[in-house]
Q: What sequence folds into this?
């Protein structure tokens, strides 16, 4: 199953997405920075018999042509996406920066989710530390690292694009992010990251997209710092990868979980890229949430 291509209207245009069909409770799957909707394919395939999963390409990612001009548009779009789908109280599942995206959308009241599932995707710094961290992400040196490692913003022809996708598949086993992922899935995610513009292909996201969403000094509604969780009132499940981005900060994650009722911590043996490398385990967590009584109107 690869999902059916859909377009979802948001402010200024549309987001691309994949609708994996199914019936019953609605589940929105939100990818992290640098990935796209295809990253959820192996999770969604395991969900579609028992719920209705949809994955989106956020601004500047995948096949979405809209780019961010500020740091908050990409998560504000989540409210518009849910409205376009005519959903009420969906389960929101976000990986990496997508975990913050669904958190911010819930914290600001853009929608009323049944629950959040944050997959190795949290904000644990205080405001001062977060501001400094994001400022560092906007430097020329940081942009060069992204271009070198991930080819962000690379503009190329068909042959070179296909060769790059092939290399991603061949190198997956030695890639700290993709090791353990199904090769065909690695190829699908890499291929979806190229957007056709004229006669060329552009690797999304661009470094300009990363810089725009990192300009958090302009945040007016939800600053990406640890106090955002004080504004989240729905149930929250945090999936913590023991080889992921937050493993060394488990005590801080635990403190967020323990700070309010209706929160729980699930730990998985995984690298950071849980949706692609541990799809069966993650799908089981999501289905468990639904079976435990996540209710949708």
A:
């Amino acid at each position: 199953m690869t999902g059916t291509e859909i377009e979802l209207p948001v402010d200024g245009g549309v987001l691309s997405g994949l609708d994996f069909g199914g019936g019953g409770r609605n589940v929105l799957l939100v990818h992290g920075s640098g990935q796209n909707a295809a990253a959820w394919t192996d999770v969604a395939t395991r969900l579609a018999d028992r719920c209705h999963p949809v994955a989106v390409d956020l601004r500047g990612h995948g096949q979405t042509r809209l780019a961010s001009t500020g740091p908050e548009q990409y998560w504000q779009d989540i409210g518009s996406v849910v409205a376009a789908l005519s959903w009420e109280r969906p389960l929101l599942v976000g990986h990496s920066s997508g975990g913050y995206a669904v958190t911010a959308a819930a914290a600001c009241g853009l929608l009323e989710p049944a629950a959040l599932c944050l997959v190795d995707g949290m904000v644990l710094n205080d405001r001062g530390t977060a501001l400094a961290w994001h400022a560092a992400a906007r430097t020329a040196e940081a942009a060069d690292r992204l271009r070198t490692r991930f080819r962000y913003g690379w503009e190329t022809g068909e042959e070179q694009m296909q060769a790059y996708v092939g290399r991603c598949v061949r190198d997956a086993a030695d890639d700290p992010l993709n090791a353990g992922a199904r090769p065909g899935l690695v190829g699908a995610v890499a291929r979806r990251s190229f957007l056709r513009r004229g006669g060329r292909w552009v690797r999304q996201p661009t470094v300009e997209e990363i810089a725009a969403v990192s300009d958090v000094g302009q945040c007016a509604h939800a600053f990406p710092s640890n106090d955002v969780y004080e504004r989240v009132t729905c149930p929250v499940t945090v999936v913590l990868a023991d080889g992921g981005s937050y493993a060394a900060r488990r005590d801080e994650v635990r403190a967020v979980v323990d700070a309010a009722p209706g929160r729980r911590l699930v730990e998985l043996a995984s690298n950071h890229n849980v949706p692609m490398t541990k799809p069966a385990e993650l799908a089981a967590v999501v289905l468990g949430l639904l079976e435990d009584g996540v209710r949708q109107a």
Remarks:
- The chain has a mean pLDDT of 96.
